[in-house]
């Protein structure tokens, strides 16, 4: 745990990446697995993870991300996109996966499946989209924690225009909406932010015990 806290103190939102340093295939596979294993509401994972390798696409995204250089300089760029109007078909797919993974018939889970469908489909489209968007933040948290353990820098971004990113990546046609961008790589020695003391609330300010 001490190592975990040490790595959390080490990490920060990197402002300038060293474009010459790349994450190894092995380490990136570990980060992908951390995302895949992330918790989510009901375990449904109502989102897709888009990995942007094409430098031309990154260059297109940069203006939509307020010109932030991390988009083009980072080793890897990931876009988290929530599924819009998530409903019965997504839930059916989840229970099919459960059935195959645990080797149990879908029919044995019908009560829970019906409950889940009734709960989620009762939400308005807007409420469901807010719900699915929130799940991407859980996946981002897992990514950031795993990256810190590997001493890989991550900059989480909400600073972009979703409509423009959706258009560039063709997400509208896929029923997806970009909620978060994460740029990954290694901090540049010229990034002065890495030398700043971390500023957080004190225990007394942050925690309430009842």
TrEMBL record:
<comment type="similarity">
    <text>Belongs to the nitroreductase family.</text>
</comment>
<dbReference type="Pfam" id="PF00881">
    <property type="entry name" value="Nitroreductase"/>
</dbReference>
<keyword id="KW-0285">Flavoprotein</keyword>
<keyword id="KW-0560">Oxidoreductase</keyword>
<dbReference type="InterPro" id="IPR000415">
    <property type="entry name" value="Nitroreductase-like"/>
</dbReference>
<keyword id="KW-0288">FMN</keyword>
<dbReference type="InterPro" id="IPR029479">
    <property type="entry name" value="Nitroreductase"/>
</dbReference>
<feature type="domain" description="Nitroreductase">
    <location>
        <begin position="10"/>
        <end position="186"/>
    </location>
</feature>
<dbReference type="InterPro" id="IPR033878">
    <property type="entry name" value="NfsB-like"/>
</dbReference>
<protein>
    <submittedName>
        <fullName>Nitroreductase</fullName>
    </submittedName>
</protein>
<keyword id="KW-0521">NADP</keyword>
<dbReference type="GO" id="GO:0016491">
    <property type="term" value="F:oxidoreductase activity"/>
</dbReference>
């Amino acid at each position: 745990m001490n190592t975990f806290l040490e790595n959390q103190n080490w990490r920060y939102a990197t402002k300038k990446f060293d474009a010459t340093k790349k994450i190894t295939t092995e380490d990136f596979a570990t980060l992908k697995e951390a995302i895949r294993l992330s918790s989510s509401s009901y375990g449904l994972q109502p989102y897709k993870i888009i990995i942007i390798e094409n430098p031309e696409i990154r260059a297109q995204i940069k203006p939509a991300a307020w010109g932030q250089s991390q988009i083009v300089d980072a080793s890897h760029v990931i876009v988290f996109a929530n599924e819009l109007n998530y409903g019965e078909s997504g839930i059916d797919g989840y229970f099919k996966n459960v059935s195959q993974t645990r080797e149990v018939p879908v029919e044995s889970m019908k009560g829970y499946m019906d409950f889940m469908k009734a709960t989620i489909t009762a939400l308005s489209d807007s409420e469901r989209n807010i719900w699915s968007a929130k799940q991407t933040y859980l996946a981002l948290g897992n990514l950031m924690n795993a990256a810190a353990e590997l001493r890989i820098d991550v900059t989480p971004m909400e600073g972009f225009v979703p409509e423009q990113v959706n258009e560039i990546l063709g997400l509208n046609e896929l029923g997806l909406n970009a909620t978060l961008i994460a740029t990954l790589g290694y901090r540049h020695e010229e990034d002065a932010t890495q030398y700043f003391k971390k500023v957080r609330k004190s225990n007394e300010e942050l925690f309430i015990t009842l």
